[in-house]
Design a protein that fits this description.
- By secondary structure, the chain is an all-alpha fold.
- The protein is built from eleven helices and no strands.
- The chain has helices at about 5-10, 30-45, 50-55, 65-90, 95-125, 130-155, 160-185, 190-205, 215-225, 230-240, 250-260.
- Helix 6 (about 130-155) packs across helix 8 (about 190-205).
- The longest helix is centred in the middle third of the chain and has 29 residues, at about 95-125.
- The chain binds fe (ii) ion (FE2) (2 copies).
């Protein structure tokens, strides 16, 4: 199935929430564990501009479709951050730019090295690097969609559930782009398949784990994915990944949960 990038760039819009009723948060606030998860999601969404920086130094920027996608993707993810910051703000939790900046500074040399590493890897791998980028993006977007769906199921506040579903619908469009690109770039390239397989096996970790503390990662993964329903979502992501050419048999997401003791 083709992905219509022109339609995506024309239709891309910020997620809307002005029409949703959040007044009941004043008398019936979200529980602490949900707010902690929302703050993690919010900060990871805002971090997209840095993820974009890390891809702009690779061969991905030379693909017309990928660079057009990344432009819209970054904007949509920014607005996911704004939407979640609004919910957090209604609970007296403010996620300001100074807070985000402090977190980025705290990442120190690790953060500064990422674009250097990406540039070296990208230039060594050449256009096959783009295939790895697309697979990686697909896994992360499948994970983001699953996370929002799980939080909507755990916290069925009417306004919040609608907002989370709207965000998940945009994550589904991101999945469609990345997975379509990944499939076509992996097909017929044993080098791209081997690179993607090795990269996922060696380096994939849950979204946000490169920037958030381990305690926060553990909380969010446990909150959303512990138990039978959460495990079903995890296994569904692995099944999507394993259907991509050359990635048969991979169970990277379940493996990452097992390593953290997050089980069915
Ligand atoms: Fe997002
Ligand atoms: Fe996304």
């Amino acid at each position: 199935m083709a992905f219509d990038i022109d339609r995506f760039t024309h239709n891309s819009d910020r997620v809307q929430w002005d029409d949703l009723d959040f007044e009941s948060f004043a008398s019936d606030p979200l529980p602490g564990e949900a707010l902690r998860t929302l703050q993690y999601m919010c900060e990871v969404e805002y971090h997209t501009v840095c993820y974009l920086r890390d891809q702009l130094v690779t061969p991905s920027r030379r693909s017309a479709d990928v660079s057009a996608f990344m432009t819209m993707w970054n904007r949509e993810e920014f607005w996911h951050g704004e939407a979640l910051a609004h919910i957090l703000g209604l609970h007296g939790i403010s996620v300001t730019y100074d807070h985000l900046k402090a977190r980025r500074i705290k990442l120190g040399w690790r953060d500064r090295m990422v674009p250097v590493r990406q540039s070296v890897l990208g230039n060594v791998a050449g256009k096959d690097f783009i295939a790895v980028h697309m697979v990686w993006g697909a896994v992360n977007e499948w994970s983001a969609g699953a996370a929002y769906k799980r939080l909507a199921a755990l916290e069925p506040h009417p306004g919040l559930a609608v907002l989370l579903k709207r965000i998940a619908a945009q994550e589904a469009r991101h999945v469609a782009f990345y997975a379509t690109q990944a499939r076509s770039r992996l097909t017929g390239s044993s080098k791209a398949q081997a690179l993607a397989r090795t990269a996922l096996q060696m380096a994939w970790a849950p979204v946000g784990s490169s920037i958030m503390s381990d305690d926060e990662v553990q909380h969010v993964m446990g909150h959303l994915f512990q138990g039978p329903q959460g495990r079903r979502e995890i296994e569904a992501i692995d099944k999507h990944v394993a259907r991509l050419p050359g990635l048969e048999g991979l169970t990277i997401v379940a493996d990452a949960m097992d390593a953290r003791g997050i089980t069915a």
